[in-house]
Write a structure and sequence with these properties.
The complex is a heterodimer. Chain A folds into three domains: about 20-120, Alpha-helical ferredoxin (Fumarate Reductase Iron-sulfur Protein, Chain B, domain 2), CATH 1.10.1060; about 140-230 and about 380-445, FAD/NAD(P)-binding domain (3-Layer(bba) Sandwich), CATH 3.50.50.60; about 245-375, FAD/NAD(P)-binding domain. In chain A, β6 (about 270-275), α15 (about 280-290) and β7 form a beta-alpha-beta unit. By secondary structure, chain A is of the alpha/beta class. In chain A, α4 (about 55-65) crosses α9, α14 crosses α15 (about 280-290) and α15 packs parallel to α16 (about 310-320). Chain A is built from 19 helices and 14 strands. The model of chain A has no long low-confidence stretch (mean pLDDT about 95). Chain B is α/β, with parallel strands linked by helices. Chain B has two domains: about 5-320, Aldolase class I (TIM Barrel, Alpha-Beta Barrel), CATH 3.20.20.70; about 320-440, Alpha-Beta Plaits (2-Layer Sandwich). Chain B is built from 14 helices and 20 strands. Chain B has an eight-stranded parallel beta barrel, surrounded by eight helices. In chain B, α5 packs parallel to α6 (about 180-190) and α8 (about 265-270) packs across α10 (about 290-305). The chains are: A alpha/beta, B alpha/beta. Chains A and B meet through α2 and α8 of A and α11 of B.
């Protein structure tokens, strides 16, 4: 990189990546829990993709029954700490809180869930559930992200022998690697992995299915298979200069930040992030918090169309991120290193088939922003090249695995799937729900007279 | 211009707010500070027999995160010598001639002892005497306080010892720890008391520590009953106040006490006949400064309602205090839910379904539940409107035209007249005639 942002003091890094939403104290948690109306058949519970019985777990916090509170949460969701910290609560549970209709601040459900679950880990994970007797059948789970963990936990408690195959040496998937450190640290995700392991799940890391082991090996070894492989790399921008030093993918960048070796991460003095989704915001704010002077988000549509949540947009603005809307990158300029990005102004045309207005280039509107680093954050590609090698598996036109909506069974009866690899990229909480539902799909399948044979 | 001044049995104060005889009115320093902030009067913390307090003496009852919904204490009467108190009372009254300074007394049950303390108290220049017949702990075991208030004969005897020498108004403070509050009130009246004050604190154990199994407050591992006060006791106080206020055999001015925390509470006491009101727990929680809102809030309310003096509202609600037997059985109300205001918490549904008469329907509409009252089945109990967190969302609507009216007393009299026994069958016939469905 041509101009590297100067390194910060360790304390400054810690401060920059400290909790965005500091935890409740006991007193504040009880006060907030008492504010909850304890709605019956509550809207927040319906809004949660895993349907956690929220008002019940909150009521239990108010009475000091914290272990019972954690149990209520785990009955619906196996990665509640990650969900508590990474869920877009404004558009899910808290957005549905009846207090909004009353013109008052909604209950801080995410923070209360965090309080109950952190207490559960502090208490040393006391037993909440008892395992059913052994079924004598085994299930292989590919990927230890939220979908894989949820599926494994549920199956293990139902008496199945479960083996997780994880390519990375550190498990947890995007829960471990993909969430900005000021929202959640790696160790939180690893605690949730430990809980699942405590149910007797065998977790094998550094095993890349398709390379170290083949899918057929797993199909031979296990009675059924669950794919929770997530998504792959950031797609190419397909513009000149993409090969220059200083051009990186957003997920690679975010993963590096999650190692927490902040001193060792090179970040440009001036950084351009391409794309305006929630991952773009993460990458931009992280670059800024690592010491970048100027961070730009470049997006070809306007703020109305961008997929980043409102609260993420607000966070970026608070961090001083500069947004270039209606701007498309034309080429990355530089000799060996990134020196600038040439952009083209856009205008919005007619809505496309999804209803989003199509950006149209304005000819002759080229301008250059001098930058030292370009972070590509225009989504993730599906792992279709791997998935398409699996026999009898069907993918949709986007490259997502097609599953039965109830059982999560793929077109290969022994294979089930959930999470980002079936939906193209949603929230942790959706993956957690998929994994749990798929476990029941697998159980139903393996309970058939000829299931898994 | 609103005039908040009151005259309670000849004791005058610029507003009805007095400090109750309690820890906040313990010393000249405290009483003078209270007067500076606007309190209309004080009942000096009870002086009398030598006592010594224990160190840990209060227990709080919190409710859903709200601190001190109730407060229990085992503090005794003033633990400072009589001489010190009398000197400070005289100084305070001299400094604050326009405020009511009443002195609470409690000594052993001997005529001479009472005569002596009453005379010495009058010498301070104070405006009145309050006889503490209510203290439920520590003193009652020594034959004083509630031990007197619970026995009308003692109450009469001691009050007579006081009134036979007193030249200033005498208020008798009653204990609520009795089955019929009217009996000691009548005894006080018969003995020449000038006013009644009520209630003193209620016998209570405030709670148990679930880790140590100790009682609260915990005195070196032991605990016991104490006096319960604070917002939680207000309804009990209002009831006992009304019982004394409507008793024609008493007919004395009353100083109301029990859980008064703000001007709204105070107005309720006045509407049930209180002349002055006494406050303790709210001051113990927040300090003397609360009187500012009490005076201002009450004045603003009076002005908004067109009242100029508290005499215009005193006892205004007493005429409505009545017996169940005189309530109209045919005054029919039902609940109506304002769908525009509903926030879909469904608390009305679950309350009605599990605890009332199963007459609210829950129907899924556009991702939430619609709650609707099945009016023909609604018994009008009002539980739903009480659990609803939205103001004016559920209202109780009267549906009868007022043409029919029947009280239980009238009904039983009619049955008797026509020779019908009060049986389930005869009652059902009456209900059927008036289209009342019981389920």
């Amino acid at each position: 990189m041509k101009n590297i942002a100067p390194k910060l003091q360790s304390e400054q890094y810690e401060k920059n990546f400290s909790d965005l939403h500091p935890p409740f104290t006991q007193n504040s948690a009880v006060t907030e829990a008492n504010r909850c109306l304890y709605c019956y058949d509550s809207p927040c519970m319906k809004a949660c993709p895993t349907h956690i019985d929220i008002s019940t777990f909150i009521k239990k916090i108010s009475t000091g029954n914290l272990i019972g509170s954690a149990k209520t949460i785990y009955e619906s969701n196996w990665v509640p700490l990650t969900c508590a910290k990474a869920c877009p609560v404004d558009v899910l549970c808290e957005g549905a809180c009846v207090y909004n209709d009353k013109g008052e601040k909604p209950i801080q459900i995410g923070k209360l869930q965090r309080y109950a679950i952190e207490n559960y880990f502090e208490k040393g994970m006391p037993t909440l559930f008892h395992k059913a007797s052994k079924t004598g059948k085994s299930v292989g789970v590919v990927g230890s992200g939220p979908a894989g963990l949820a599926c494994s936990a549920e199956l293990a408690l139902m008496g199945y022998e479960v083996t997780i195959y994880e390519a990375n040496k550190i498990p947890g998937g995007l829960n471990t690697w993909g969430i900005a450190p000021y929202k959640m640290r790696r160790e939180d995700s690893l605690k949730e992995v430990e809980l699942v392991k405590s149910f007797g799940v065998d977790l094998k890391t550094k095993i890349m299915i398709g390379k170290t082991l083949k899918v057929n090996d797993l199909l031979n070894k296990h009675n059924a298979l669950f794919l929770g492989v997530g998504l792959g790399e950031s797609p190419q921008l397909s513009i000149p200069g993409e090969e220059l030093s200083g051009v990186v993918g957003a997920l690679d960048f975010i993963e590096k930040v999650k190692t927490e070796n902040w001193h060792d991460i090179q970040v440009g003095k001036r950084v351009a992030v391409i794309g305006a989704g929630n991952t773009s915001i993460d990458a931009a704010t992280e670059a800024k918090r690592l010491g970048a002077d100027q961070v730009y988000i470049i997006y070809r549509r306007s703020d109305v169309e961008m997929s980043a949540y409102e609260f993420e947009y607000e966070l970026a603005k608070r961090d001083g991120i500069v947004f270039h809307f209606l701007t498309s990158p034309k080429q990355i300029i530089g000799k060996d290193f990134v020196e600038g990005i040439e952009c083209l102004k856009m205008k919005l045309g007619e809505p496309d088939k999804w209803g989003r207005r199509k950006p149209i280039p304005i000819s002759g509107s080229e301008f250059t922003i001098p930058v030292d680093m370009v972070i590509k954050a225009i989504g993730q590609e599906t792992k279709s090249s791997f998935l398409s090698t699996i026999s009898k598996l069907t993918l949709d036109e986007e490259g997502c695995v097609i599953v039965d909506q109830t059982t999560y069974q793929t077109t290969n009866p022994k294979i089930f799937a959930g999470g980002d690899c079936i939906n193209g990229g949603k929230e942790v909480v959706n993956a957690a729900y998929d994994g749990k539902r798929a476990a029941h799909g697998i159980d139903k399948f393996l309970s058939l007279p000829k299931g898994g044979k | 211009m609103v005039d908040l001044s009151i005259n309670c049995a000849g004791i005058k104060s610029p507003n009805p707010f007095w400090l109750a005889s309690a820890p906040p009115s313990n010393s000249a320093y405290q009483n003078c500070k209270a007067f500076e902030q606007g309190w209309g009067g004080t009942v000096w913390k009870t002086i009398g027999e030598p006592v010594m307090n224990v160190f840990n003496r209060y227990g709080g009852l919190d409710y859903n995160g709200q601190k001190i919904f109730g407060l229990n204490n085992i503090e005794l009467i003033s633990d400072r010598p009589i001489e010190v108190n009398l000197k400070e009372i005289a100084e305070t009254k001299k400094l604050w001639p326009d405020r009511a300074v009443v002195v609470s007394l409690m000594v052993e049950s001997k005529r001479e002892t009472w005569h002596e303390i009453v005379k010495r108290t009058i010498d301070t220049g104070c405006d009145g005497i309050e006889l503490n017949y209510g203290c439920p702990h520590g003193m009652s075991e020594r034959g004083m306080g509630a031990a007197v208030g619970q026995v009308p004969e003692y109450c009469k005897m001691i009050t007579e010892w006081v009134t036979e020498v007193s030249t200033i108004p005498v208020i008798v403070k009653l204990t609520p720890n009795i089955s019929n509050i009217q009996l000691p009130a009548r005894a006080a009246k018969a003995a020449g008391a000038n006013a009644i004050s009520l209630i003193n604190t209620i016998n209570s154990i405030i709670g148990i520590n679930l880790d140590t199994f100790e009682l609260k407050p915990n005195v070196g591992g032991l605990g016991g009953h104490g006096g319960y006060a604070g917002p939680a006791v207000k309804p009990i106080a209002l009831h006992l106040l009304s019982q004394v206020a409507i008793d024609p055999e008493v007919n004395l001015p009353i100083s109301g006490i029990g859980g008064i925390s703000n001007w709204r509470d105070a107005l309720e006491f006045i509407l049930l006949g209180a002349s002055s009101v006494q406050v303790c727990t709210a001051v113990m929680h927040y300090g003397f400064r609360i009187v500012n809102d009490m005076i201002e809030g009450m004045s603003n309310w009076m002005e908004s309602k067109g009242f100029t003096s508290l005499d215009q509202i005193r006892g205004k609600s007493l005429q409505r205090v009545n017996d169940f037997g005189n309530f109209d059985l045919l005054n029919r109300t039902i609940a109506r839910i304002d769908q525009q205001k509903c926030i879909h918490c469904n608390l009305c549904y679950i309350a009605c379904e599990d605890a009332a008469h199963q007459c609210i329907d829950l129907t899924p509409v556009n991702g939430h539940n619609k709650t609707e009252v099945r009016e023909k089945d609604c018994v009008g109990c009002a539980l739903c409107s009480l659990v609803c967190p939205v103001e004016n969302c559920i209202s109780m609507v009267r549906i009868d035209d007022g043409s029919a009216s029947k009280t239980w007393n009238q009904l039983t009299a009619e049955f008797k007249k026509s020779g019908k026994p009060m049986s389930w069958e005869n009652l059902a016939e009456f209900q059927h005639k008036h289209n009342i469905v019981i389920h």
